[in-house]
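User: My collaborator and I are trying to settle a disagreement about how two of our proteins should look. Neither of us wants to argue from intuition anymore, so we agreed to look at predicted structures for both before our next call. Could you fold the first one, then the second, and keep them clearly separated?

Assistant: That sounds like a sensible way to settle it. I'll keep them separate. The first protein:
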Amino acid sequence: MRHDIRLGIVAAAVSILSAGCIATQEWTQEVIGKQQVEVDQHFVKVETGIREHGERLDRVEIRVAQLDTGLTETRDVLRTALPRASSALPPRTVPPPAAPPSRRTLIGVVHVPFAFDRADLDPTGEAALGAIVKELRDNPQMTLDLEGTTDPVGALDYNLRLSQRRVETVRRWLVDRGIDRTRIVSSAGRGPLVDASVKNTSKRRVVVKLMRTGGD
């Protein structure tokens, strides 16, 4: 193509000379030389652009090939790793069912009496507790709940503390006689008993609830 353009330039120059133009031969050669330089520069630019475009295409093809290789390697890694991961999982264990709570049944109530504004045991209270100790030794499944009360005379806060002191006296007396602490399931002072049908002398007490654990 470059050769054809050069031939055209030469032919134009020859036709100008043969037509008898006033331009000199030197001027004609200078014009031809400039045009030839411009044509060469144009072709150099075109060839450079084509070469750079080809290089960019080559780089794109390399990147696509690298991406395809990376995807293939990733698939291979996943195929080999997933079975190992699943096989490495520990077997699922099912926790054993929780044991049902032990059933407690009330089988008797004993009142341990106290004197007015007192938290120490008198002979009557010790006798009542002695009978409870015997029952506990004869029945290993038996447990106790303790509830202390007072009469309504005096301030509420004071009577709450007094009822708790009475409970602690009974609990300590039983433990000192060999009764395991765990068999006394609950112990609480309830404060004054306001039931008008109960005499004040009967309100000064600790109620001992005998409970049987398990069974019907």
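The second protein, kept apart from the first:
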Amino acid sequence: MSYSPTNNLNKFNQPSLVQFENLKFLIMDSPSDLNIEQYVKELVRHGTTDIVRACEPHYQTLHCDSAGITCHDCEFTDGDPPPLHIINKWLDIIESRYGSFDGKTEPEENLIENELHQKVQNNNKSKLKKCVAVHCVAGLGRAPMLVAVALMEAGFDAEDAVELIRKTRRGAINTRQFDFLLEYIPKRGKRQEGCCTIS
């Protein structure tokens, strides 16, 4: 039986959680207008602030907007690595939520939210951790690639970034994309050899 993206768009598939230090990502397949409400419930449960579409849109953003989740379009060609302008847009989104990869600046919203966070922190720490969701059609190529780039900016090498992603997203990242990651040089973070071994 051949894979049909349109059939997959009507099904809810559990997003895959990838975390490292303060970074928290949900990798998903693409919602559709038929199942977006179900996806949004799961996104809210994880404290998602942003959803990044690495493919063409298959749903209206109304439910995301209502839940306070900002939608970003970072579409690029299926099966390919992300082009530089998409990498820069993606890293801008990540830095706006988590601060710079070199740790020198906090995200802008932290300055406003710090007081509120201090009050809420004792009640429920887990809900405070912000999450960025990212999807393509099947959640196996473009979306995991963006997460791998963010992990490499945070200090991972290509092999460890892909291994961490594949622990929760089996079959993610094709050979061509992996070759791109092997050559990728972090643009904003500090690459620290051997800092992130996976056991």
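Some points you might bring to the call about the second protein. The mean pLDDT is 83. The chain has one domain: 8-183.
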